[in-house]
């Protein structure tokens, strides 16, 4: 297995040692190890320094971490000054975090989940869920591969490579798609649950929805939707206990 | 599921552990999404309908979560697995409310346990600070495997606790039909509130809002036709 392939596989566990001090740092060091192996024979001192740098503080979206990993590994082989590599790593944190979160957590995942929910309710069942898993992991696997390859190829010019890539355009397009999918899923799922209970029960549930939206908005961040749900259930049980 | 026999509990424990690991550590393949975790758990306990109904409901709660940066959020994966263990075997209209209540408590506990694991990871790193500063690759590997083990243990314990609680509730809590239905309706209403809140927060006032409303229009049409 080549170093790049091992690094790619290790990237899937890049958040394994997530903590509040180095965040993804140690996970990045773990993924960098196969990439830096050849440096050990060429320049053992440089290799030791590179390993130290690879496990220092780092944070970004895990699916785009390959860009930083590849770029810094290449910079190590080009024997660039350590301080410059650290600056590159630090500079990549925010953009890779923002772009990756926008693309995956606020875009692709809700878009596919919304579509899967509609599919499940309309009778696609397991197929909808399998489709969600396969499409998400296909895109994510390809993105991770592309990230690592682009990082390795561009090194210190990784910023320009990202700007000229498909990423900014994909982020623009996925946002509307995810909003549309979630917008479609909510009424479909609501009807799926509430139809068997009849009209008056539906009105009651709608009341809970309205109260939930309003109260969690007014009393945020203390009153989360989970706390609201638990409080509403306890309130109901108390009411039933006293005979209402 | 009428009883918590080993041939049901063991696969649930394995599944809950995998689901717990998937949330953050490895491989983030989205098996920790409640829709997936619940459906598979339903299949494991022999009640696919319960798995699907509970999974979809927790998925609505999960839509309110945006896992960016160091944000703290509930862990719905093992919680959904335990909720399915409780809800299986009963008509979903009666069992959903109590299952969701159990699941939500476990999800909060799961989110809290995630913070504990992260603090333990930080302590482990501090203990190996000298080896890290010396550039020892083996120290990085040991830290990584140790952290994965901690997270796996977290998922396992959460699932085990959930199954024990589910078994206890099944044996000891009996709700009358009216209360059970009312609890289910409150659970559905709360989950929809979470999904709507999350959808509006994610859309803001940008062009996404128009797409959200357009999608809602299509959804209403589909719901009427279905």
Structural account:
- The radius of gyration of chain A is 24 Å and the shape is elongated.
- Chain A has 244 residues and is mainly alpha-helical.
- Helices cover 78% and strands 0% of the residues of chain A.
- Chain A has 2 domains: 191 residues, no CATH class; 47 residues, no CATH class.
- In chain A, helix 2 packs antiparallel against helix 3, helix 4 runs parallel beside helix 6 and helix 5 runs parallel beside helix 8.
- The N and C termini of chain A lie far apart (68 Å).
- The radius of gyration of chain B is 20 Å and the shape is globular.
- Chain B is mainly α and 226 residues long.
- Chain B has one domain.
- The mean pLDDT of chain B is 95.
- Chains A and B meet through helix 2, helix 3, helix 5, helix 6 and helix 8 of A and helix 2, helix 3, helix 5, helix 7 and helix 8 of B.
Name a few traits of the molecule:
heterodimer, A: 244 residues, mainly alpha, 2 domains, B: 226 residues, 9 helices, globular
How would you concisely characterize the structure shown here?
The complex is a heterodimer of chains A (244) and B (226). Chain A has 244 residues and is mainly α. Chain A is built from 10 helices and no strands.
């Amino acid at each position: 297995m080549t170093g790049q392939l091992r690094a790619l596989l290790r990237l899937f566990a890049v958040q394994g040692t997530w903590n509040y001090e180095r965040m993804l740092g140690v996970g990045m060091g773990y993924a960098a190890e196969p990439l830096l192996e050849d440096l050990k024979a060429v320049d053992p001192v440089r290799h030791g320094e590179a390993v130290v740098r690879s496990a220092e503080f780092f944070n970004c979206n895990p699916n785009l971490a390959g860009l930083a990993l590849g770029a810094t590994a290449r910079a190590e082989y080009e024997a660039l000054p350590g301080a410059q590599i650290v600056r590159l790593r630090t500079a990549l944190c925010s953009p890779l975090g923002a772009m990756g979160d926008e693309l995956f957590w606020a875009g692709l995942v809700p878009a596919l989940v919304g579509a899967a929910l509609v599919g499940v309710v309309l009778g696609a069942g397991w197929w909808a869920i399998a489709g969600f898993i396969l499409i998400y992991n296909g895109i994510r696997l390809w993105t991770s591969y592309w990230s690592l390859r682009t990082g390795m190829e561009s090194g210190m010019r990784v910023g320009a490579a990202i700007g000229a890539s498909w990423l900014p355009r994909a982020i623009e397009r996925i946002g509307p798609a995810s909003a549309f999918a979630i917008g479609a899923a909510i009424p479909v799922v609501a009807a799926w649950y509430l139809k068997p209970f009849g009209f008056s029960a539906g009105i009651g549930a709608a009341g809970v929805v309205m109260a939930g939206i309003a109260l969690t908005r007014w009393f945020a961040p203390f009153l989360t939707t989970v706390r609201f749900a638990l409080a509403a259930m306890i309130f109901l049980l108390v009411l039933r206990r006293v005979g209402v | 599921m009428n009883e918590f026999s080993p041939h049901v509990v063991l696969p649930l424990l394995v599944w809950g552990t995998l689901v717990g690991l998937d949330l953050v550590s490895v491989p983030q393949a989205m098996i920790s999404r409640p829709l997936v975790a619940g459906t598979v758990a339903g299949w494991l306990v022999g009640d696919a309908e319960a798995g699907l109904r509970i999974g979809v409901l927790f998925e609505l709660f999960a839509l309110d979560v945006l896992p960016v940066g160091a944000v703290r959020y509930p862990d719905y994966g093992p919680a959904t697995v335990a909720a399915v263990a409780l809800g299986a075997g009963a008509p979903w209209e009666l069992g959903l409310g109590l299952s969701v209540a159990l699941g939500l408590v476990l999800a909060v506990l799961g989110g809290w346990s995630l913070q504990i694991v992260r603090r333990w990871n930080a302590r482990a790193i501090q203990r190996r600070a000298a080896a890290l500063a010396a550039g020892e690759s083996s120290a990085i590997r040991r830290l990584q495997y140790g952290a994965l083990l901690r997270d796996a243990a977290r998922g396992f314990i959460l699932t085990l606790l959930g199954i024990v609680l589910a078994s206890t509730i099944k044996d000891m809590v009996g709700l009358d039909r009216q209360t059970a239905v009312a609890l289910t309706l409150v659970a559905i209403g709360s989950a929809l509130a979470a999904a709507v809140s999350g959808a509006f927060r994610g859309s803001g006032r940008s062009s996404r809002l128009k797409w959200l409303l357009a999608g809602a229009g299509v959804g209403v049409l589909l719901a009427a036709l279905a």
